[in-house]
Amino acid sequence: MFKFLFIFLLLVLLFSLIALRYRREITFLIKLLKLLSSSFGDKDFNEESLVCCATCKKWVASSQALSMGMGNFYCSRECVNRLSRHE
Asked: Where exactly are the structural domains of the chain?
């Protein structure tokens, strides 16, 4: 029984010394694994389509764009007013 306890304590000591020596690499590995697991985690974002403003050519989300019919979208009221001034 004492042989197993002695071997176990020796292995714990060896593991502790190795972990102490390579602690920077181990912490880097842990951070890298957390980053990878979070990137493959829940994808909770909305895949919303983008539309191009007919006046300034800025891309905006279709839910935030102003539509004036015939497939024309505008990013803001200023772009709509700018278009009406030019016509």
From this structure: 2-39, 50-86
